[in-house]
Amino acid sequence: MEIFKHTNFDFLGKKWPFIILSLLLTAAGIGSLFVKGGPKYGIDFTGGALMDVNFIKRPPAEAIRAALHKTIPGEIEVQEVNNAQSAGNSQEALITTGVGVAGQNIQTVRGDIVSALNAAFNPNAGGKLDINTASQSDLIDRVRDQLAQAGASLSDDQVQALTKRIVDYRTAHSGLIHNLDELASVQGVTPQILNVIKQQCFAGAFTIRSAEVVGPKIGADLRQQAINVVLIALAAMLVYIAFRFEWIYGVAAVIAVFHDTIITIGLFSLFNKPIDLTVIAALLTLVGYSMNDTIVTFDRIRENLRLQTRGSFEHIVNLSINQTLSRTVLTSGLTFLTAISLFLFGGQVLNGFSFALVVGIIVGTYSSIFIASPILVFWHNLSESRRRRSRAVVDTRPRPVANAVKAVKPVKTAK
After folding, report:
1. Is beta strand 129-130 parallel, antiparallel or unpaired with respect to 201-202?
2. Cα separation, 281 vs 357, whole angstroms
3. CA 254 → CA 30, 55, 80, 292, 396, distances in Å?
4. Which of 130, 187, 255, 391 has its CB surrounded by the most CB atoms within 10 Å?
5. pLDDT exceeding 70 applies to what percent of the chain?
6. Which of 100-114, 230-244, 333-347 has the lowest mean pLDDT?
7. Left, alpha or beta for 211 (phi > 0: left; psi -120 to 50: alpha)?
8. Residue 263's pLDDT is what?
């Protein structure tokens, strides 16, 4: 399928605006990295705790941060998640703590954060159990004896099945029960049982949707491994293309991919987005994607050179880019639509991954045309200039005379 046929765009003639744009983006990204002391790493690489908290009515980020600082040491970051990126009507906040929690297990960290949030946003619990943060076993322990005292004759299996249905109902509603009266719609919850639940429990202001803890040593090891993986991928690509084509093709392709990676990381720094393992996965995806796009163009250039296509090398490169334009637009366009959909609707967990893909696809597509190809043309012109100068030097050298000494014929004189 071709959406562009017999095009003749002068891509190389329009390369300078894109080169200048790349230089500006690279300078801005490197400047941001320098000012901020490097990329902003997620807890995968720094160590710490990450907790996804869903509120019935989300307090300001500063209020959440202030509540946690009272009991939790170290740096605390609170990131509000927009409703468009969340399921249902949830109002989430991502809470990230620094390495001060290293060495603690996830239950300890979760308990510390829940206690700090309860003190700030559930001050009048009155010793009751928060049904929005309680586990099923906590709920069973709290209501089993009270149900028996109230005359609700339920066996242990029935109590377990009842509490499981309550927890499932909570999970189906973004982890939150706004009002205990909602439980009347749960199968098996009679008015008598609901009255016991109301006496023993309350609907808190938040719930914990997920929590994870990473130690600082593991984070440092993961960071080094991620850097090594990216560098090894670039080196392997360079060797492959140098073997498949010529070494200058490999250099041009790797420079273009390195350019894509630097700009993407720079934009992460400019937008203050953390780099975690999902972002590294996206960067590796972009390395392969951008390299493949570049190789397709290079392969068409090599094919046209073998066919001895008429015209200068720059003309052949332009021709090759035009011939692969339909393929570039189709593959990049469809991939971009997928990436932008992930970015808009994929939620906070996939936000970094999808942002890297969106940026990388845009930058990687134009770098194959306006960065890698001009490098080939520049090197070819430089090589041609050197060859012409070498031939000129050879032509100006004194040529040896075939017969150094020639026989001189006698001059005839008049008699």
Report:
1. parallel
2. 10
3. 19, 47, 38, 11, 40
4. 130
5. 87
6. 100-114
7. beta
8. 94
More confident residue, 100 or 74: 74
Of 375, 294, 373, 335, nearest to 9 by C-alpha is: 373
Cα distances (angstroms) measured from residue 9 to each of 24, 372, 374: 25, 17, 15
Closest CA relative to residue 204, chosen from 185, 179, 171, 172 = 179
What is the rounded radius of gyration, in angstroms, for the C-alpha atoms of the chain?
A: 34
**61 burial via Cβ count (<10 Å: 0-12, 13-18, 19+):** middle
Rounded distance, CA 191 to CA 197, Å? 10
Choose the most confident range, by mean pLDDT, from 161-175, 219-233, 308-322, 384-398. Answer: 161-175
Hey, which bits of 140-275 come out as E strands? 201-202, 206-214
List for the chain the helix, strand, coil content (%; round to 5): 65, 10, 25
Q: Which amino acid is at 323?
A: Q
Beta bridge partners of 48: 214
Pairing of the two strands 129-130 and 206-214 = unpaired
H/E segment holding residue 77: strand 76-80
pLDDT band at 217 (very low <50, low <70, confident <90, very high): low
User: Which pLDDT belongs to residue 272?
Assistant: 87
Residue pair 5/242 in contact (Cβ under 8 Å)? The answer is no
Give yes or no for residue 413 having a pLDDT over 60.
no
**Sheet of 48-55, strand order:** 76-80, 91-97, 48-55, 206-214
Residue 144 has pLDDT above 60, yes or no: yes
Q: Please write the tens of the pLDDT for every residue from 12-54.
A: 888 899 999 999 999 999 999 999 888 888 777 777 788 889 9
Name all domains of the chain by residue range, CATH numbers in brackets.
12-40+215-394 (1.20.1640.10), 48-213 (no CATH)
At 399, is the pLDDT very low, low, confident or very high (cuts 50, 70, 90)?
Answer: low
DSSP 8-state secondary structure symbol assigned to residue 402:
S
In the block, tokens 């893909």 appear at: 357
Mean of the pLDDT values across residues 239-256? 81
Tokens of 113: 């954060």
333's tokens: 């366009």
Contacts of 52 (CB under 8 A, 6+ apart): 92, 93, 94, 95, 208, 209, 210, 211, 348
Calculate the average pLDDT of the chain.
Answer: 82
